[in-house]
Write a structure and sequence with these properties.
By secondary structure, the chain is α/β, with parallel strands linked by helices. It is built from 4 helices and 5 strands; from the N terminus they run E-H-E-H-E-H-H-E-E. Strand 4 and strand 5 form a beta hairpin.
């Protein structure tokens, strides 16, 4: 999988990767995770494709909180929100996985 630096997001190279339906990783975000996701999302959508954005590991965290009191209620609400989001973005061309701890995103072509 090709790695792209944050500074290279607004170049033709990223647009070419999306047009050729390639998966890639964006690194070197230095606190600019949201900006990187927005830029990639806009490039995917301007190419006539759909994408789903999610935080890696969020489903596991929601599932682990089903047991016990208020955390169980929060876990159920979180799982319901995840399910609704997945339905709203059904069958995307790309998935954008955010890795906030690693300060990177992974953009995977899914079709």
């Amino acid at each position: 999988m090709q790695k792209i630096q944050y500074e290279d997001l607004n170049t033709e190279a990223v647009t070419a990767l999306i047009r050729s339906k390639e998966s890639f990783e964006v690194v070197g975000l230095s606190g600019r995770l949201g900006s990187a996701v927005t830029t990639v999302e806009n490039k995917i959508e301007s190419s006539g494709m759909k994408c789903r954005i999610y935080t890696y590991g969020r489903v596991a965290a929601a599932g682990g909180s089903f047991f016990g009191g208020i955390t169980g209620v929060i876990g159920l609400a979180s799982a319901a929100g995840i399910a609704a989001h997945n339905l709203a973005t059904f069958n995307p061309d790309y998935e954008i996985a955010k890795y906030p701890i690693d300060n990177r995103i992974v953009v995977k072509y899914k079709k």
